[in-house]
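[job 4471] stage=fold_predict status=RUNNING
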Amino acid sequence: MNIPQNLKYTQDDEWVRVEGEFAYVGITDYAQHELGDIVFVDVDCVGDTIDGGEAFGSLEAVKTVADLLMPVTGEVVEFNEALEEASAINNDPYGEGWIIKIKPANMADIDGLLDAGAYTSKIGA
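[job 4471] inference complete, writing structure tokens
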């Protein structure tokens, strides 16, 4: 399982990468492996401010449909248009497979997420 050290993680198997005043959000390698091939990503909340823990979209995989949950409260400023071809999540979940770019309401909230070691323990890897 690939668990980059420079990211933060949620209990819901999402990752967060901070770049300046923004953060990118995606699903972990573990999550995409558990879900199976992801065939569709549904996000229609660009411009909305969403509370941490609330759904911002969903993923459709061969096996199931899963909600995507905001890691922290913030405004969704961009959806990764490359995900019209959902295979980017399957092939590169931490790079080209990012799902949304957000402007967190409080950057300090990201510090409260799991680090790579804690996430590794959580998934038992």
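[job 4471] summary: The mean pLDDT is 94.
[job 4471] exit 0
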